[in-house]
Write a structure and sequence with these properties.
By secondary structure, the chain is mostly helical. The protein is built from six helices and no strands.
Length: 151
């Protein structure tokens, strides 16, 4: 399977530290934000919704119709909340995983997509290397010679 191209409207990675929203009603209206995100996903994809629904149905092995997608994208239709499995599937079939990022930031998380994990791992390894170098410098100041020169 060829690597999916980034969507031209893809959101840039936000590298600021996310803050977990935990106060009273901090996540109120999240359902409406998810609906708007579904609407953005569908609007940014040039394919007919019937095609997207068919691809989603195949991916999930579950019937998803165009009217279901229409209902999921309408904040006025709160009786038709999108299940997480269908939301994640929709992100996958439209290659708009980037639109998940603003939602997960609300719970203090951030999102790395695909190979971006390697960049995070590289940063982690560099941090570990700095910590090891600091420990070596500190030990060099106080470490005694081991039993000197024995012959």
């Amino acid at each position: 399977m060829p690597k999916a191209r980034a969507h031209p409207d893809q959101l840039a990675l936000n590298l600021s530290t996310p803050t977990m929203l935990t106060g009273p009603a901090a996540l109120a209206g999240l359902d409406a934000r998810v609906c708007r995100t579904v609407g953005t996903i569908l609007a940014s994809d040039g394919r007919p919704r019937e095609v997207i629904a068919a691809e989603l149905s195949v991916l999930l092995n579950d019937e998803v119709s165009k009217p279901m997608l229409d209902a999921y994208s309408s904040p006025a239709r709160m009786d038709h909340k999108v299940p997480v499995s269908r939301f994640l599937g929709l992100l996958a079939v439209t290659a708009r995983v980037d639109l998940m990022s603003p939602l997960v930031r609300e719970i203090g998380a951030t999102l790395l997509i695909g190979e971006e994990v390697k960049t995070a791992r590289l940063g982690h390894l560099r941090q570990q290397a700095r910590e090891i170098a600091t420990e070596i410098r500190e030990l060099e100041q106080s470490a005694p010679m081991i039993r000197g020169n024995l012959r």
